[in-house]
Amino acid sequence: MAGSSYGTLFRITTFGESHGSAIGGIVDGFPPGFELDFEFIQQELDRRKPGQSRIVSQRKESDRVQFLSGIFEGKTTGTPIGFLIPNEDAKSADYSHLEQGFRPSHADYTYQQKYGHRDHRGGGRSSARETATRVVAGALAKLYLHSHGIKIQAFTDQVGAIRLPESLIETLDWSDSESNAVRCPDPGYAAAMEQRILEVRKLGDTIGGCVRCRVTGVPAGLGEPVFDKLHAELGKAMLSINAAKGFEIGSGFEGVAQLGSQHNDIFNPDGTTQTNNSGGIQGGISNGMPIHFRTAFKPVATILQDQESINTAGEIITLGGKGRHDPCVVPRAVPIVEAMTAIVLLDFLLRNQTFKS
Amino acid sequence: MAGSSYGTLFRITTFGESHGSAIGGIVDGFPPGFELDFEFIQQELDRRKPGQSRIVSQRKESDRVQFLSGIFEGKTTGTPIGFLIPNEDAKSADYSHLEQGFRPSHADYTYQQKYGHRDHRGGGRSSARETATRVVAGALAKLYLHSHGIKIQAFTDQVGAIRLPESLIETLDWSDSESNAVRCPDPGYAAAMEQRILEVRKLGDTIGGCVRCRVTGVPAGLGEPVFDKLHAELGKAMLSINAAKGFEIGSGFEGVAQLGSQHNDIFNPDGTTQTNNSGGIQGGISNGMPIHFRTAFKPVATILQDQESINTAGEIITLGGKGRHDPCVVPRAVPIVEAMTAIVLLDFLLRNQTFKS
Amino acid sequence: MAGSSYGTLFRITTFGESHGSAIGGIVDGFPPGFELDFEFIQQELDRRKPGQSRIVSQRKESDRVQFLSGIFEGKTTGTPIGFLIPNEDAKSADYSHLEQGFRPSHADYTYQQKYGHRDHRGGGRSSARETATRVVAGALAKLYLHSHGIKIQAFTDQVGAIRLPESLIETLDWSDSESNAVRCPDPGYAAAMEQRILEVRKLGDTIGGCVRCRVTGVPAGLGEPVFDKLHAELGKAMLSINAAKGFEIGSGFEGVAQLGSQHNDIFNPDGTTQTNNSGGIQGGISNGMPIHFRTAFKPVATILQDQESINTAGEIITLGGKGRHDPCVVPRAVPIVEAMTAIVLLDFLLRNQTFKS
Amino acid sequence: MAGSSYGTLFRITTFGESHGSAIGGIVDGFPPGFELDFEFIQQELDRRKPGQSRIVSQRKESDRVQFLSGIFEGKTTGTPIGFLIPNEDAKSADYSHLEQGFRPSHADYTYQQKYGHRDHRGGGRSSARETATRVVAGALAKLYLHSHGIKIQAFTDQVGAIRLPESLIETLDWSDSESNAVRCPDPGYAAAMEQRILEVRKLGDTIGGCVRCRVTGVPAGLGEPVFDKLHAELGKAMLSINAAKGFEIGSGFEGVAQLGSQHNDIFNPDGTTQTNNSGGIQGGISNGMPIHFRTAFKPVATILQDQESINTAGEIITLGGKGRHDPCVVPRAVPIVEAMTAIVLLDFLLRNQTFKS
User: What is the C-alpha separation between D52 and D332, in angstroms, rounded?
Assistant: First the structure.
């Protein structure tokens, strides 16, 4: 019970189903006296919303956030920031066929098992619509981190089997990643990825991919061993995003084949390191180098093909593919990855602010 | 601050440095009236301890756990279980050369940055010695889970580039994994992995690898969306283990290349699924299928070769390779992975025990 | 930071200032499948709202709660219940004189010191308006507790120096307490208390009082020693209500003058006790007897008299008494005391639902 | 479950029964680099231990604390501080008569109801022996607070009906409170209180009392509304101490009879107040004035007289008065009140250390 809060000192709590009247949340612990850039917050929401390009869901949601508290004369007051995003295009009728049926690899079955009574419309609470509230909280956190020189940037580095080579990554201008629908900073790879997504959509199918995230300007010292290590919390935060199946920091899964003598990051005299296999975190604490990690997202479970499944009575049924869904979740996951990263970092930044005796 | 506790209803808190007088912990929230098998607990500790085979550290620690509270007449009382493991073979002199120097890819530098004052001997709090306390807490959790039909089994599925093929895994007798030093259930792969570790040790070097874990008998319904999803907490728990760099659940990173129509797990009439790409968790909640995931461990940072590094004054120094360390952490990580899995699952089991109205 | 959440498994998080557009909250961890009585919830809000009688503030707020999530077809789904109460009668102009001045014994000064930037209108976040959100969450909890036979009833037992004698309390019909504006179940005392409040109001002054609360039907076993003792959490919850200055359980402050031989509650063969000086809680755990405790509320700080004070520049100013406030907070505190009691009890009820091995 | 931890950033977790081999705890989140005064810590323990005067229990415990981690070269390292206090004088045989019987107004019955299986010896976990671990953690917190100019002093202000008049309190030299066994700073009242305790002891009976606590040097700004108000947490902490039945801050229960115009604390130009009915806390946040509060302790339940009671079979039995217990818990409660106060304040001090933007 009670799994809809995240964070210790900077804490977000969210509510809302895809087909209720609104979703929203409460951001508690945001530092006071901070002037908010509301346009930026809305832009972040727009980066996540459906309908923004031809490779994402065509569901229409204007996703306008309304702030209800915690802000006075444009500045934060240190008290909780309540906010709402009304649900507009909730066509409940679209989902009546799901009242009794469990969609494969969705949360329909597990919510039914856990709660007994559930809102079957559009996935209810398990819908990715919930992540819009994370983007709002994350945008607030980002603004604060920006003012302390911390910059978070994510991009698509894999769609299906098409993966941006490691060697290319250091040479990229990451700011290009917003210039295309797939959110990959390399134009050639971006085109290939977009092509693949369109092919898959034509099949009525879906495909997975990975998001890479890099954070610069992080001071050394963030993270609270032994359990609340910085990369452990980042991992939890990423894995809590819908459709996430994997997380790796620094050298990750591929680094296991290296020898220690290759993998070790040798120090420069100023405390920076010559390589960054550690991904900016050592012993669970940031070391001042850029933090970088990858998150894997499975192919979206909703497909536009008929699938065999079962209903609540355990009878075999055929589910027809309907609805307006994403052929690939990854482009829209980019701002969500950034948002959760910002939320984790701000919490650790505040947890690290202890007296030095 | 305060990162040494884990869990909500079943909560472990640990203390201790590698070279202090003892390490230990407090297990709070263990159900009352449960008869403990102390021999099993000690066996679990023995699976983790150094010196058990020629491919692990030769440091000598008998690792005898002493229980101080929470147990009466052999049964738990529901009150906190305090326990100690004395440190025996702490040769502090071995580490005097590290007082001023930062070992590459260790936590020396980040602890110095965060805390200012640190116990440099053997890594202090950041030493993997700390994980012995997790094994004790995990053994308690395992015993309870066993009595509810939940079984956790981990094994080594990759050392360096040698990886057990996915196709083999279903055919293995996992109980064989304890029959060899490397803890891989396939005798052929086990021999190759052990050979590789010995080669690497001869070079004075180290190598990484992966641990796979499978849990059977988990009831549907565990996990607390939207942030405390079951696989998100498992990910955090695994990533909090020393040297862990990656986590994947079910199809993980490789699943991203699949199409949704391939990846979706089709239901059988009884609610089980024909495939298990979900890894036993859908929407963050267990679905009753076996849970399976992998954790990546980097090559150990301590090598027996000279390395260039810096000291606290920012001067370049040469660190000579000394000490008694593991050429590959993976075999000893197997029981730690199991322990953290047990801790996470017991907490969720208790969190799920709400009234049904 | 982040002090606007309460509870572990049943957790409420609130937001909102007295003069923003709305206040509201999120109730997380409410058990699923429970049919809600919305009329009851509104009645509870009506018991707290201003303007309900001549002895309370005449501020007009219809206080209509809107539920936004977590409820489907009239039943809870186990997912977070988001709700809003719009602010209607927020006359910000009334408070312009407070922008620079600190009202004595209000939170103006301390919020300024803590946060630097604050919403001065009507006390902002420190306004008792915030307690309306507690009443909503408490009403939900009450409904659930009712269905398990747990009944919470509070009443006014002291206004100024007029205190209902202990000897009378056992003979009262507590259900009478809602029959008068002051919420005291004894008609004679109620009349005297109301008279006293009207006198004080005529002086432009305010007065304090006490609320007594009794809970019946509580099963033995609730409470989590050694820190989360049931009466310790009840104390925290009561003291978190605006204007609360004291809490006592069972025999409380007066019991200290007794001898142990008088104070001890002798058992009956069925485990009930002949007296109840313990107040239904022993060793921090409910014993199955009725829980009873008292909470002291100071005289409201806002008075309709001129007071000397200081402004943000540290200059002495005269604050004129204005606004529409309560001469005595106690009658309206009664439903808030009940609400917080329900919130605490439901959380402990859920925390107690562990497997028995 | 899991109620043996207290605090958010500065967190203590304790374990231990009165008749096990040891009690102890883990202090997590103590700031690093702080030089500890071990003699002071032991002195604090000595203030709590039994056998220190003729008016307290004659049980013999040397109560020597052993620190096991988190300290290096005499200074804290920022990692968890584990500690032990061995139990020495645990005469289990003394309690064999309690295996089946429930002592009136003890926790025997409620622990049996909650946990089913319990350590009946000397109250087990519910014994006040547990508070020794709080004194150790509190002594650490005190040392840190001292270094920031925060001073905590408690004393006995009531034994039975003998209460130090409010008017005397401002004129006392509080440092005199340690000069007598009863820990009351007024020699005349101290003598009368001690006389009363001796009379009661002669009767084989016990008596209650109150402890007053005052904290000076607290900066404005501590406390986290709306639930984690400073006085609400202080109340919880005090009420979590064995035998505590009531808590009041500032004017407390007596203040309810005042008018607002009398009760309001008028500001001086420097932000201090002319009176301190608020007890140093307004709106849940410290205002920089001394914090003062009182805690009521009931008469100890263990008396040296025969009492009627029941056993686990529900049969009526006679319990003979045995054992070595305190006729009045208040003198030994003084250092415990101080310890819990220090723990609460250090946690809030750390929670308040956020960036100011």
Answer: 9
On the question of pLDDT at B356 being above 50, the answer is no
pLDDT of residue A355: 41
CATH of segment(s) C5-351: 3.60.150.10
Q: Quote the tokens at residue B333.
A: 């990580």
Nearest residue, CB atoms, A357 vs list D34, D225, D356: D34
**For A118, nearest residue in chain C (alpha carbons):** C77
When pLDDT is averaged across residues B216-238 and rounded to a whole number, the result is 97
d(CA B198, CA B193): 9
Residues of B within 8 A of C74 (CB-CB) are none
Specify the higher pLDDT residue, C92 or B89. Answer: B89
Q: Which residues of D touch A (CB under 8 A)?
A: 8-9, 29, 31-34, 79, 144, 147-148, 225, 349-351, 353-357
Distance from CA of B336 to the nearest CA of A (A): 13
**Which segments of chain C have a pLDDT < 70?**
1, 89-98, 323-324, 353-357
- Contact between chains at A2 and C11 (C-beta distance less than 8 A): yes
B33 to chain D: closest CA residue:
D117
Mean pLDDT confidence for D198-208: 96
Q: What 3 state SS string does chain B have? A: CCECEECCCCEEEEECCCCCCEEEEEEECCCCCCECCHHHHHHHHHHHCCCCCCCCCCCCCCCCCEECCCEECCEECCCCEEEEEECCCCCHHHHHHHCCEECCCCCHHHHHHHHCCCCCHHHHHHCHHHHHHHHHHHHHHHHHHHHCCCEEEEEEEEECCEECCHHHHCCCCHHHHHHCCCCCCCHHHHHHHHHHHHHHHHCCCCECEEEEEEEECCCCCCCECECECHHHHHHHHHHCCCCEEEEEECCCCHHHHCEHHHHCCCECCCCCECCCCCCCEECCEECCCCEEEEEEECCCCCCCCCEEEEECCCCEEEECCCCCCCCCCHHHHHHHHHHHHHHHHHHHHHHCCCCCC
pLDDT in tens, C105-125: 999 999 999 999 888 887 889
Q: How many CB atoms lie within 10 A of CB A170?
A: 6
Answer yes or no: do C29 and A1 touch at CB < 8 A: yes
User: B9 vs C354: CB contact, 8 Å cut-off?
Assistant: yes
> First vs last Cα of chain A: how many Å apart?
39
| Helix residue ranges per DSSP H, A88-130 | 108-115
Count CB-CB contacts under 10 A for residue B122.
Answer: 24
Average pLDDT, chain D: 92
Distance (Å, whole) CA C142 – CA C278: 23
Please indicate whether, in this complex, the C-beta atoms of B33 and C351 are within 8 angstroms of each other: no
Contact D72 B119 (CB under 8 A): yes
